[in-house]
What does this fold into?
Amino acid sequence: MSTPLFGIVPAGHPLITAPTSSPSPTSFLYALPTNKPFSHIVVFLLPGIALPDNSAAAIYLTTAREAAASPAPNFRFLGAIGPGKESAMFKVAAGAGSETSSDGGLMIGISVEPADAVAPRLQELAANKATQQQQASSTSSQSSSSSPVPTVVLAQRIIQNAFNFLASFSGTAGPGGVEVVPLRAFEEWWRKFESRVRSDPSFLEKQSD
It folds into this structure.
């Protein structure tokens, strides 16, 4: 048996170094365990192992059923390791109770390829991840902004708006110095408040507490 080149550690499972099969001298398949679920794996070059100059180890993912049924399985590119980045962690989902159990688990493919061929795929992968993060952030922002403001909060904001306006008109009357607000002040507040609601119906929803 040839000397193992790579190590794979599914989270919570023992280290895997021996490939399940080796379709070529530069490509290796590793069956991941299915007895216990996991969500991440770490792939790394074993100590003392160095890849040929100007090469990288591309990491791929497929299902065991796909790998067994097709001479050219459909692999998903996960990333790569090589000089300067001897290990990497990847998010996957496998094991008992996962959606991949019916497919016989997952297979990791590692292929030693020219670095120039792997680099564009890494850039494309990074661009796709950035786009997905932006879309997720945009969706979250839209969801947050579209959430209705509770009625009690709107009522509190109306009261606060009225109080802030009328406070400057307050005065005292009578021997006891009772604090009063002229009716005309309330009428003036209502006129301005109604005008603002007409020009911007959502201004209370956008108001910060």
Notes: The first helix runs from residue 64 to 69. The CA atoms of residues 31 and 107 lie 5 Å apart.
